[in-house]
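Troubleshooting log. The previous structure file for this entry was overwritten by mistake, so regenerating from the original sequence record. Sequence copied from the archived sheet and checked twice against the printout by T.R.
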Amino acid sequence: MEHAPAWLLNSLIYLSAAVIAVPISKALGLGAIIGYLAAGIAIGPWGAGLVTNVEDILHFAEFGVVLMLFLVGLELEPRRLWSLRRSIFGWGAMQVLGCATLLMLVAMACGVSWRLSLVGALGLALSSTAIALQVMEERNLLPTPSGQAAFSILLFQDVAAIPILAPLPLLGAASGQNSDLAPVEYAQAAIKIIAVIASFILGGRLLLRPVFRWIARSNTPEIFTAAALLLVVGISALMLLVGLSMALGAFLAGVLLADSEYRRELETDLEPFKGLLLGLFFIAVGMSIDFGVLRESPGAMALVVLGFLAVKGVVIYTLASHIQLPLAERPVFTLLLAQGGEFAFVVFQAAAGARVFPAETASLLIGAVAVSMLLSPLVLVAVDRLLLPRFARSDATTLEEIAEQQEAPVILAGFGRYGQIVGRVMLAEGIPATVLDHDAEMVEAARSFGYRVFFGDATRLDLLRTAGAGTARVLVVAVDDVEQSLAIVDLAREHFPTLPIVARARDVTHWNQLRERGVTLVERELFESSLSSARSVLQLLGQPAHVARQTAMRFRHHNLALFEKMRPHFKDRSKLIATIKQGRQQLEEQMTQERADQEKRDTTRWVD
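Regenerated output below.
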């Protein structure tokens, strides 16, 4: 393959390394990110030496981070982003300024010059957006309080990119370089940046949707995908032109399209590109680790890595306590933000170019950041296996069970996704209800929203008596577990035979088991919602709304009647199958005849 083009050889190397390393890493329980980093180390200058142009690959692979921020922006409508403004500029500023200040003070206390301490602290205060968001996506952490807080802080770090880079030429001038630069130029640059962002937001609201609508009318899927990529590339180029972060621009573009009709299609089109380019980015980070610096100054490297991770960890954990994040979420939150970030590479390279400090110092700091990005996923695995189980045990909430006699007319056993709807209707009608749930976390969550929920297992007779089963008018059994549901019904039937029961059935077998126990008011949890979806499908296929509704209602009545017919045979499989087949055939014949009768009536009406 000596005449093969470079792109073909590089593609072969990258894809082979990823396909081998990532599945092995996942099989070992280490996650995909460690696999990509290990693949980069293996094929990079300090491994097999198959790839040497690391910096060019890293710049190209950064587009994966840009696509990630664009897709994250698509999930955030402008209204929701505005609601996060305090956490972005509040918690974000506290994290960056707190970490930078403490890092600078520690460095100066160790005898480092104030200029190097300041730039090093500002660069090390930043975190890896790529690794943090990828980890949160893998663990579904973004909807959690710690995920929202971490995202807000990462977004502020992208906003803070320009203020961090801006003073570097001035610091270089203070050391005898770039003395011709004037503060007026920075003021003009700031005005230009603000003008570009403002015009981008205003113009984007007016132009993006009409443009995508016009492209969509061409009915050419590949052109729509090309237009989506063009949007992200164009925004990134515009941001670079004014000196802003490409990722920040892509994020704003995603937010502008978050409430558009093209949101899902854009996500589907760009997701494969994001995954591949992010993997390439992590491989490039692995290749960029300078093991030569590590070999020459192992003590200094270890001191820098452990030192800045420890300092940032203290600040971020304190911030997590101030934000009042759940105790079990704080270790992961701290680790995700304590590592160095990819933007630190830009800061330290720019500082070396401005002669703020020597190139050797920049290499040491860049190596420290890369090593921290490598260590972070490994430490997360250790935290998952060793630390989080202890936090979970220490954070477990001990709740007192119901103690005082209750007199509410309704007892609601189970306050999950089904029971909450029943409870909210009772609350809206002003009907008091005694709510029981044996899940401590669910009880705490419901109480935080103002619901009066008692902790307790409704399968216990003493607790059911205290809840008022002797005087209540209705018992609603809404628990998710089938065995627990049946146990509650058996207990109520034996000790409170006159208490009416309304029950939730998880499936057909559960429905029959409840009916066998004499419970007549049983609702299958997905039946009504499935019928509603069927009506929507019929309407989309052209049926008038009233016809679709009648069709669904006929099916509903037939299905309920069929269930009553099946009930005596639900333990006899052969008879049950025969009854179901007979009922299905009867329904099809009935609905076919009704359609024919309707067509005949329509024809007669037209002739008359």
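The beta strands are 410-413, 433-437, 453-455, 474-477, 501-505, 521-524. Archived copy saved in two places this time.
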